[in-house]
Write a structure and sequence with these properties.
The chain contains 6 helices and 2 strands. It has helices at residues 2-14, 34-58, 66-83, 91-116, 121-145, 158-223; strands at residues 24-25, 30-31. A two-stranded antiparallel sheet has the order 1-2. A hairpin with a 4-residue loop joins strand 1 (24-25) and strand 2 (30-31). The protein is globular. Belongs to the TMEM45 family.
Amino acid sequence: MSNIWCICIMVEQFVVDGPHAHLYDTANQSWVKLMNWQHGTMYLFFGISGIAIVAKTASKLVPVGVDHLSLSLALFVEGFLFYYHVHMRPPLDAHIHTLLLVAVFIGSACFMVEVFIKDNIVLELFGACMFILQGSWFYQIGFVLYPLRGPEWDLKMHDNIMFITMCFCWHLAVALLLVACTSSFVWFTVKRFSGKGRDIEIGMRNTSSKTSSQKALLEESDEE
């Protein structure tokens, strides 16, 4: 996990047109590729979150809730950076990124609440839903800003902003449906097989008790 975020940071820095570890150009007196630096900062905090999760899993000395706290912090940093990521952009571009912040900040708040409220299935599933929404919306942003085919979107048309807002609600509905179906399937599967397991266990106990009774009767008959 730590290797992944390190690779992501290195890619942001050393792509062909990347900053190559230069933050400020003294010759031109300007910042160098701040977008790449912001992306790298996001990866850094998700890397810290990954380390915290691994440490929490591997050691009982790590305080309870550190994993959720670090994940909440990583999401907050992502949203905080994205908020200043979209200034001075066309209206549709800024709006579609702002909608992303809804999923990011709600997810951050959800995981922060989980630091104090343990094993709440509603919070856990809702947090998963926000992650799915965030992931699917990233794809939507890509298709809007960089369409694979057809005409480009008019980034200043208000109707496009209205449609994208409605589209975000559809993404949310699909994420909720996916989480609901997945959790229901898992619940029914576990319930079904755990019930069979209990039946098998009860059957084994009954067989064992019958065998013991028969053995006791045989021993008594031998003594007589």
